[in-house]
């Protein structure tokens, strides 16, 4: 669990504003402690039969100054908390955007969103209620105790006994708040993750008539969050009555004891009023200290969850220059090469076993093979979503590990099968990450991918919103947008995962012609199941069981690969009956 040390490290860059807020809070406390002395003079004067108007004026000025200092201090605390929360969210989201894909595979996106949004809000409350007010509360408490001791040590002993017993009970409650807070934040994260899961697959939920199932799951998660929050709220609620009871008991005891001392002449009525007023101000720093300790206990869970995110491994470039492997000019070297690549999502279960192949700088290479053979894993390694366990992936003859991720992915474009789009306009999605694009290039790519007619039919053309995840476009249109976006970025190699999966026969024929045209300018690597795509490839790699089982042209594989012949026969049979 996180604690004071993590909090101090988090607040390192905000020492000035935090100190300013603490100083204002402390100033308000000191101004409050001056008031009992003036009140004593005013009461003693009134008891003697005359009012001291300058004393009353000074007392009113002190009240106004105290209110101003406390109000300004709270605003500075709130401003500091908001600034720190924004910076923390910037750090957290920037870190999440660079986290390795393997870490996302192991976690839940909804829970990570909860940590970036909800947990950082808890930290904001932690900052507003701990650092500034806690420090000021400690100093104010010391000053209040000193003033009470100077006014009447005997009455102070009565107050210490009552407040001490109450404070001990509060500390016992606070220790349990930490665990309850962490449990509650985990429950909130699980609820958000379940909601993100249901809404992210809402079409599947509706199609499977699973609304009651998902509603029950969400209700169960909400109930867990409710129970966890209620446990924490119950513990926090115990602190309020304990503090109030201590203040009320101490106030009553002071009045009774003080009245006895006034009647005996041991103190004046002004002394009793001053002590009573000072004692009421003692409650404020005690409450601030408790709030600070309680906030740390509640916020430690949030800080711990945030620290877990910041501990996730990120993609880091290796600033190491290495020589080109092999001779020849860049144009003559393969754009991509796998050399004895082994890889597994779990070290004990390799998916790729010694895969090796080259992709020339021009032309089209097709990957075929059964589901689960390793084709998508080859693409993931080519895009550097993962790194090989053994062997090397080379880009233009250089080990890809020693090329920056940004430079590598600028050279290797990817078109996924499900063609995800982002909320925004069609133009936003086409130009996403593409860099400067001329109108001429945009028109050329729109014509190549058949999107010119699609854009013409939309209400606002290229400026038409596509909806969340591109829901307003069909699957085939989303795929064309993904291909067009990749072409506009002008990579040296384009990876296409089943680019014709969502296309009708006419569109498939047009796209095949487009790919042949693009293959004259750069390299294409295509995962294909339709043989209209396979036949046009200059080289075909048959992937089976995590190895390259065969390689060659369509005609060569028909003669040399029994698996490829069976695959061709099955595909042609299916197409005949389609």
Automatic annotation (TrEMBL):
The keyword Transmembrane helix applies. PROSITE patterns: ABC_TM1F, ABC_TRANSPORTER_1, ABC_TRANSPORTER_2. This is ATP-binding cassette subfamily B protein. Its main location: membrane. GO terms for molecular function: ABC-type oligopeptide transporter activity; ATP binding; ATP hydrolysis activity. Residues 19-298 form the ABC transmembrane type-1 domain. One of its GO terms (cellular component) is plasma membrane. It comes from Actinoplanes xinjiangensis. It is found in: Cell membrane.
């Amino acid at each position: 669990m996180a604690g004071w040390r993590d909090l101090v490290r988090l607040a390192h860059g905000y020492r000035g504003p935090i100190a300013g807020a603490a100083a204002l809070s402390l100033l308000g406390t000191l101004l409050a402690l001056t008031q009992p002395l003036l009140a004593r003079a005013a009461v003693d004067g009134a008891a003697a039969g005359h009012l001291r108007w300058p004393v009353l004026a000074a007392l009113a000025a002190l009240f106004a100054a105290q209110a101003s200092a406390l109000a300004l201090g709270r605003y500075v605390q709130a401003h500091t908390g908001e600034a720190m929360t924004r910076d923390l969210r910037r750090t957290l989201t920037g870190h999440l955007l660079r986290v390795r894909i393997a870490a996302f595979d192991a976690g839940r996106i909804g829970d990570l969103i909860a940590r970036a949004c909800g947990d950082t809000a808890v930290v904001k409350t932690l900052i507003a209620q701990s650092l500034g007010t806690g420090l000021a509360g400690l100093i104010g408490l010391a000053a209040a105790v000193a003033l009470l001791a100077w006014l009447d040590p005997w009455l102070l002993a009565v107050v210490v006994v009552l407040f001490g017993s109450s404070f001990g009970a509060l500390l016992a409650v606070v220790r349990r708040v930490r665990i309850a807070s962490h449990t509650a934040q985990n429950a909130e994260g699980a609820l958000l993750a379940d909601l993100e899961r249901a809404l992210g697959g809402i079409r599947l939920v509706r199609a499977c008539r699973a609304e009651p199932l998902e509603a029950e799951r969400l209700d169960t998660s909400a109930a867990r969050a409710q129970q966890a929050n209620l446990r924490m709220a119950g513990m926090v609620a115990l602190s309020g009555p304990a503090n109030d009871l201590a203040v009320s008991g101490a106030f009553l005891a002071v009045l009774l004891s003080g009245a006895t001392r006034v009647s005996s002449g041991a103190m004046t009525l002004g002394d009793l009023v001053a002590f009573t007023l000072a004692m009421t101000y003692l409650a404020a720093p005690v409450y601030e200290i408790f709030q600070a300790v309680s906030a740390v206990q509640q916020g430690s869970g949030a800080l711990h969850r945030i620290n877990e995110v910041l501990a996730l491994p990120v993609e880091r470039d290796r600033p190491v220059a290495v020589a080109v492997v092999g001779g020849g000019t860049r144009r003559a070297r393969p754009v991509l090469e796998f050399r004895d690549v082994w890889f597994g999502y779990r070290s004990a279960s390799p998916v790729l076993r010694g895969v090796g192949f080259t992709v020339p700088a021009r032309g089209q290479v097709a990957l075929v093979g059964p589901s689960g053979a390793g084709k998508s894993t080859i693409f993931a390694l080519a895009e550097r979503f993962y790194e090989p366990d053994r062997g090397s992936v080379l880009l233009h003859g250089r080990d890809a590990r020693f090329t920056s991720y940004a430079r590598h992915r600028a050279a290797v474009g990817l078109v996924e099968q499900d063609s995800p789009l982002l909320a925004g306009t069609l133009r936003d999605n086409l130009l996403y990450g593409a860099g400067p694009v001329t109108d001429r290039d945009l028109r050329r790519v729109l014509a190549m991918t058949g999107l010119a007619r699609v854009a013409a039919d939309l209400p606002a053309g290229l400026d038409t919103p596509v909806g969340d995840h591109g829901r307003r476009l069909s699957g085939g249109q989303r795929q064309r947008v993904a291909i067009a976006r990749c072409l506009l970025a002008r990579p040296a190699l384009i990876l296409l995962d089943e680019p014709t999966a969502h296309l009708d026969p006419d569109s498939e024929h047009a796209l095949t012609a487009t790919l042949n045209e693009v293959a004259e300018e750069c390299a294409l690597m295509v995962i294909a199941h339709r043989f209209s795509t396979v036949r046009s490839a200059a080289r075909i790699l048959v992937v089976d069981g995590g190895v390259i089982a065969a390689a060659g042209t369509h005609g060569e594989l028909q003669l040399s690969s029994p698996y490829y012949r069976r695959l061709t026969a099955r595909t042609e049979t299916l197409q005949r009956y389609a």
